[in-house]
Amino acid sequence: MKDISYALNGLLLKASRKAQAYILLLTLFFLALVVFSSQLVIFSSFEKRALVNELHVLQQQRDDMQIEWGQLLLEQSAWGSYSRVEDMVNSQLQMRVPLANNVVMARQP
Question: Rounded distance, CA 44 to CA 41, Å?
Answer without folding.
Answer: 5
